[in-house]
Amino acid sequence: MRLLFGIQCTGNGHLGRSERLIKKLRNDAQVDVLLSGSECELQLQEPARYQFPGLGFHFGNKGGINLLKTSLNLRLRRFFRDTNSVNIQQYDAVISDFEPMSLLLARRAGIPAIGISNQYAYRHLIKPKSFDLLGKMVLQHYAPAEYQWSYFYEKLGPHGYHAYIPDEIASGRVENLGHVVVYLPAYHHEYLGKLLSLFPYQQWMIFGKRIHRPYSKDNIHYLPICRSTFSRALLTSAGIICAAGFGTTAEALHLGKKLLVVPMKAQLEQKYNAHYLASKGVEICNSFDLNQSRTLSHWLQTGKSIQMMQPDESNLIVSDIISLLKNRNRQVSTPFSFVHEPS
Prior knowledge:
By secondary structure, the chain is an alpha/beta fold.
């Protein structure tokens, strides 16, 4: 069996959890990897067979997406040219972590496509009060798969799985050395520093995509993205301030760290996550500026830790993938049904 595994690289979470699945899948199948996107700092241990710019977005400086830069870099002609360069006929099936090129190829060729990502969880959830129709269309049509399986903070449906937690987090020693980790990639690190400087008694560790070397200003420490450094900072932190992305929030909850979540603007996925996290008692701050200094002060003094353990289900996921594909191969060919809803 030969598989194509597509990975979305607009963030680090897709790559980390996919790499674990790929290693285990290679015990039963030959797996080639396709990467698309350009906002990921991590790298695969083994190089991908295909790597393309894909369709992604660029972060702004004050909490949202830089729409102008995103639009200027939206090269649809290049996207379809790159897609056409892949010989999909050599593969028996596609696995995708919300990666659109591999899923488009699977649909064209009529081969099985399993999408597994936290983005597929949102059809199971209650809509947040502030709902975005355009965002809904993106979630539904950006990476549609024949089979849609989901990661989330809790199991949702028969093919719902717990969040992936990196080994260095899952097996690391949890301590409290007093610092607070800040990871808000849609804010410029110097903009964040202005607000955090109002709290000189607190040690801050800001991780940023635009920080190229570590440096400090008084009680604020600026650090480039590095998986090992970031993991160590989380394990030893007193609290974590981050966007409502799935990966970091799940890691914080797994560790039982105090958590303040700042959803990215105009991101429906993050609205869903924030809505769910608020229902579990996590504090949500819809913007992060000088007007929020009182909210930040209150959280530092009275914020509570909430723990939601995330077991490693990678073996189960791989077993489910192999079982589905083997069973499908045994069945008599049936008309193509685009989305298989959970039973």
